[in-house]
Design a protein that fits this description.
636 residues, Dimethylsulfoxide Reductase, domain 2, 8-stranded mixed beta sheet, globular
Length: 636
Amino acid sequence: MRTVCPRDCYDTCFLTVSTKEGNLIRTVGDDAGITQGFLCPRGYRDIERMYSDKRVLYPYYRNNDFERVSWDTALTILVDRLQDTLHSRGPQSCLHIVCLGNQGLFSSYLPQRLFYALGFTQTDGSICSKSGHDALSLHYGLSYGCTPDELLDMELTVYWGFNAAVSAPHLHRLSKKSQKKDGFMVVVDPRKNETAESSDMWVQVKPGSDIALVYGILKYLIENELIDFDFIRRYTQGFDALKDEVSLWDSRVITEYTGVKSDTLTELAELYHDHKNQVTLIGIGMQKSLHGAEAVRAISFIPAVLGVHRGFYYSNRQASYVDIPYITGERLTDKKINIISQIQLGNYLERGEFTFVYIHNMNPAVTVPNCKVVQEGLARKDVFVVVHDTHWTETAHLADLVLPAPTYLEKEDVVIPYSHKYVRKCVKIADCRGESRSELQVTRILSERLQLQEDWLYEDPWKVIEKAFHNACEEGDIQDLRKGKMITLKVRPKNEYQTPSGKIEFCPPEKGIPLPKQYLLPENGFILLNSAVKKFTHTQFQDVHGLIPPLVFINFRDALRSSINDMDIVELYNELGSIRLKAVISSSVPPGVLWAPRQGNDTDGIPQNSIVPDTTQKIGGGPVFNTTLVRIRKVQ
């Protein structure tokens, strides 16, 4: 049977699941979409995860310890506590937390209608890509760019802070195929990651110095008149301000900031000029740093001065015409919705601003910065926490009420990819394990028990999809989708800019935001970077692949200076606390920089994110995971 993976991933793979005598036995990748017949290590193990002994199979209520209860009892407890809170403190003291543990429209988006109808406080979704979206929107109106279909024929592909070999293996495979057709692949990254290993050129840049590198490239292109003057005149605004800013940068200072030699910078600039058929793929992870949004918007200027319409890719979530606010109910409610920072969630919880919290498709107890405070907030006696999840996560263990959810193999759904434009129905392949009920089922039942009167809470899910997809399809329609056929979404034109001027605005005057600024880099201690590893999607799959390895990579010079040997236990510490990891001595990271797999626990079970500050970026309010400052010492 054919279905679709709904995980938080660029690739949104199409797969075929084999069954035997009613049991699921194997998953393989389809040739449809961009899947190209293969899956990642998670996709191949999804069946094991469905049958995992870490599944939540029944409702549980905490009465000192967890006790199994019936669904009727669980829902009665939930409704009673919710109504008490609504009557005594109002809907703004009720918090809804959702992310993309499953990004299906029926699993993550449509259930939000209940919380919009009730007027729950919502988080701003800033934990992931929001800062980069907001940054690009300043200059382009919307943040979409190149589609994966174009990668195959690219002459130049630049992965900037984007380890696609791990985070987007199907995009990376397309780029590998372009290399075989004489395409050239460049990786710009502080770390020699898996994508850099497969590239034709690796540019090692100091963390946080991307803007200086961009300005160096622009300076070379402008001073040597290698830019597209006609394109700039017709399609852009504010170029003179950009030119003036770039002219202030001295080549020696750029090298000092970035660690990139001038001849390497020149080579990269020449590559950009020589290949009009180009794309720069900007990493979401790279954007999760103190000035990450600034770097994202700066990088996007390179193709613009060369005459390439939207010659970047960051995320294409804004490329389609699907009406997401209709699906979620955001534009249907008449309630005034309070929005709080997802990054500073712990501060709100710790202060006791919420007494009822409903969480699904997220594991904030370990994935949010300064997560120790999040855990303490969720554990407050005066906070009632509901978690609806497939597995016993760290967050579920802190809940007062835990509800069992089916995996994507056990329910019907629709997923809109955030890179490509192909959509196919997720079909229900297996019966739900235990007493699992879908997110949509539960929110519908709660709407009835709460006697809510809004008609849109009870709208048929496929009618919702049909309305939301109106005029959004290039090939096929919702009826084709329901029959299991692949449909293709329309994407917005790349030469269209939704800015006030209708052009690329390098320095948007009405926004009052200056050009990207390169800030001084910290020199006290080490910069701790983190990023994804192949076997895990955030904290998922540790029940299948084992724990996220508690490792930290350190440059051999730094290790020698601190008398650290390979596999020594070392302590990383700052003002927030400390974690202990096993050292891996490597030349893949530069001096002064450490790298660890993201969102894991240390050797004692302490989350890595307990030492990540909950500082927010100026643009978009995003996290600063990759600007975490630590010191390191060997544990004797």
